[in-house]
């Protein structure tokens, strides 16, 4: 799940990435905004989900995926869009376009 917060005085959006997986010990966010380097997500017990906040420039689209336990890839079920990648699967898309 993606939650976005926009700021009146900054050209960036704060995006909260949230991902639930019943058996995951570790989930990492991997995307264009991190040069495809994994970013560790924190498990939030009360929400039973892994979360990470990331500030991203507005009016852009970024490809991303979740890496579960260092071996299994998954998409965000509520991403803004999906696009095919060169591995024969899809990438999730987060769009930081500010809505009027």
TrEMBL record:
<dbReference type="InterPro" id="IPR013783">
    <property type="entry name" value="Ig-like_fold"/>
</dbReference>
<dbReference type="InterPro" id="IPR014756">
    <property type="entry name" value="Ig_E-set"/>
</dbReference>
<feature type="domain" description="AMP-activated protein kinase glycogen-binding">
    <location>
        <begin position="15"/>
        <end position="96"/>
    </location>
</feature>
<protein>
    <submittedName>
        <fullName>1,4-alpha-glucan branching protein</fullName>
    </submittedName>
</protein>
<dbReference type="Pfam" id="PF16561">
    <property type="entry name" value="AMPK1_CBM"/>
</dbReference>
<dbReference type="InterPro" id="IPR032640">
    <property type="entry name" value="AMPK1_CBM"/>
</dbReference>
């Amino acid at each position: 799940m993606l939650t976005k917060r926009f700021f009146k005085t900054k050209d960036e959006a704060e995006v909260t990435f949230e991902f639930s997986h019943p058996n995951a010990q570790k989930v990492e966010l991997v995307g264009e905004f991190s040069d495809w380097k994994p970013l560790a997500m924190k498990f939030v017990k009360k929400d039973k989900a892994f979360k990470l906040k990331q500030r991203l420039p507005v009016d852009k689209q970024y490809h991303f995926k979740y890496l579960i336990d260092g071996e299994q890839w998954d998409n965000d079920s509520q991403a803004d869009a999906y696009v095919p990648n060169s591995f024969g699967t899809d990438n999730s898309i987060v769009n930081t376009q500010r809505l009027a």
